[in-house]
Amino acid sequence: MRYTPEVLSEIKRLVKKENKNSVVARFVIQKFELTNKYDAVWKWVNDIRNEESKILESRGSSGEEKKFVLSAWNDEGYMMDIDQYCDHYKLPRKDVRSYKLVSHTGTPYYNVKFEEHIEALKVTPQQYLEKMELAMKEHFPPVKSFKMGSSGLCGNIGMVNISDLHVGMHPNKDDNSLWDAKWDRDTIISTIMTVINGMSVFKKQNGGFDLLVVNLTGDLVDGFNQETTRGGHKLPQVMSNIEQSDVCVEAILRLVEGLTEELSVPVVVYANANSNHGGDFEYITLQKLKLHLNYKLGVDMKLSNKLALGYIIPGTEKPVVILHGKDKDFQSRPLPAYIDDKDDYKIESIINAVHKERASLKPLVIKGDSHRFVQQNKKNFYWIANSACSPDSDWVKNNFFNAGTGACTVVVYNKITDTALVGNIDF
Questions:
Q1: What contacts 217, CB < 8 A, 6 or more positions away?
Q2: For residue 2, how far is the Cα from the chain centroid?
Q3: Number of C-beta neighbours around residue 53 at 10 A
Q4: Core-most of 31, 45, 121, 401, by most CB within 10 Å?
Q5: Bridge partners of residue 162, in order along the sequence
Q6: pLDDT digits (tens, 9 = 90+) for 202-232
Q7: SS3 of 304, please?
Q8: Highest mean pLDDT among 80-94, 120-134, 383-397
């Protein structure tokens, strides 16, 4: 069995972006429906990666510039000692921690390691983000955002709800759970690729999309310093704070870039960071994501740290409310997945707070937190509780239920008929 030109082209594209063969193989299997062909596809990926590496090496050997080093020869052709070397090149000799003369290369030089002098940065998070934005502007040319057209549109808006991703969570800390699961960086990226493939299927099934909306509804990171925003107990985690933030940004960037490339549809992003696991840590992480989306991909993102974020779907009149369901501070009782009539007034008060002029247009209200998929057609709003993208933690599995390996809730809203179809992409 050999790969087709389409598969070859896709693998070559993916190996430039993803270092893990297993992640590329799973994505190709899903996209081209190569069921039960994992070993063969993995070998294709490995072979193609090796071929690409050889090509790069051959290019480098023929035209690559030599590494620049500071020669240990002095102007008279004698070898300098380390004191003379530092004096010659104006290097701080007092800060040299160790050094080694490298003489087996064409040009001898000293491999010098210096003492690090790290001063505490006297900068606020906002100042840091402003500096980061200036750096983005300097290194990335401005990309124009999309504009909704008016002709040839099918009326469908695809909505991808990424909820409870819990980057950094350890789903089986003591390795004794009845329901084993992995949730490392590679698994998360594979999950994101499954979402991209799933949305391609939704696009075909529904006759296309005019626009894709990505809703981020909280708990994308598992928690700062192994705690929820309210503290009280340690969370079992497999990543540091920095790793959680970096992998979260990488995952959503992969998602948006993949949706744009695979579906050839413009994408916008809406995010509410006010959640009981993410809180301010998630808000800062998503500020970083917002800069990357804007300057690298030209994608707009609206971010909120309030209880709820309200917006109007671009090109329509439809109001949407996204919230997590349990905030970082005040809610003693989280909003349940299935709401009865006594909860309606709470939801309606939130709608009126963010959509005063459009509350009568029966908004879509989309929440996270419950790790359960529920949809209800209420009198004054449509209610959608998202599935969790992550597998359940030991605490959830043993106190409530095991919902499985995770899923992404998808909404297909048609602005012509004002109807919404809701489903899941299971992992």
A1: 161, 162, 163, 164, 272, 275, 322, 323, 324, 366, 367, 368, 386
A2: 33
A3: 11
A4: 45
A5: 216
A6: 999 999 999 999 999 999 999 999 999 988 7
A7: strand
A8: 80-94
